[in-house]
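Reviewers of the previous submission asked for a worked example of the structure-prediction workflow described in the proposal, so we include one complete record here. The input consisted solely of the amino acid sequence. No template or homolog information was supplied to the procedure at any stage.
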Amino acid sequence: MKLWGGRFTKDSNRLTEEFNSSIAIDGRMYKQDIMGSIAHADMLGKQGIITPREKECIINALEEILRELEAGRLIFTEAAEDVHMNIETFLIDKIGETGKKLHTGRSRNDQVALDIRMYMREEIKKIYFLLLDLMETILALAYEHAETIMPGYTHLQKAQPISLGHYLMAYFEMLRRDLERLNDCYKRINYMPLGAGALAGTGFDLDREYVKEALNFECITRNSLDAVSDRDFAIEFCSWASILMMHLSRWTEEIVLWSTEEFAFIELDDAYTTGSSIMPQKKNPDLAELIRGKTGRVYGDLINLLVIMKGLPLAYNKDMQEDKEALFDAVDTVNKCLTVFIPMLKTASFHAENMSNAAEQGFTNATDFADYLVNKGVAFRTAHEIVGQAVLYCLQRNISLNDIELQVYKEFSSLIEEDIYKYIETKECLDRRKVAGGTASFNVIKAVKDSKLWLKELQKKYDEI
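From that input alone, the workflow returned the following structure tokens.
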């Protein structure tokens, strides 16, 4: 007989059990479910709702169940539906009638809300440290390549020279925002829902603040209806994960491009690439491509949750059982992608000479030529037209701006002097951009140092919490 089967006259059909069961998905929350149950039992004892002996009996049995599950001596069954009912069944099997008292003042509705929040807190902490590792890797590489010149692109066309360090710090800034958003997401997860009951709270004198402290939550939920029907925090995490994966996808797209013979800016370590089953010469950036591909999977998880929740009336509905598959998939995918991306980046080799040679081509110094004329008193739009004519001249002759003879330069503008050649050297173009946030090597070094201090302060606050 089911733990809820008192009003039923027959057992569930096997198809009902299989279709209704979620243990294959939510079984991973067994530890959170047991820890939440221990805190609940402790509070019931404190409030005199169960006796001290019953409290100790329940807690000891739950701790034993945890050890047995982790040792593989207990097996979940579909017949018990989910992780909550499985563990309660184990408890009753161990201690009989006393075990049936654990669920006093509690519903699976507030119980599952508690378990998911506890589980997500732990997973967010794991992701947090992966992000820190990736960001520290970026800072080390950016410092190393503060003066490594490469072409910057717009529309995937060469635009202006930048440093590889500046490029890497652009992704650091994306991850900085991701980390801040993750910390903000954690705040809204860190609300304790137990005590909301099925939807209306409970008539028992529960001490919710006591459970909140025992489980290290920041606050208790303020409305019992909202507490059991809220999955905003899950949607918010999947939204956060989608933004992070979008950033990783943009980066891996560039890694794939840079790995081609046409670019030859980067070479991935053999340990993080694969070969072809038919073409012996191939070295494929499959991990980067998979991360790019898995981004769509996380987007799907977000859409899945939004569609599940969009038409649900208050309070709990069985549709919400489907939340965990999407949420856990997003968690797992982000974890896996970060776990392989970090060592892939750490072991990659950047071809500085190829990058520098590429920056010398494509007229990346054209804007600086225009700026040169502006500094001589020419209006920018006029300077823009003059430089455009000079670029066309070079294209017709297959030469660069650096190759134009001074007498020819003077035909474009009498203001051009010998100093033009120094002014449009690629390194000069890069180092001249000292404006705050610009690509000058000095700025990159400063950005790296400032970011290291920011990470250090962030870690200090995290440790205090």
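The two ends are 45 Å apart (CA to CA). We consider this example representative of the routine output the project will generate in years two and three.
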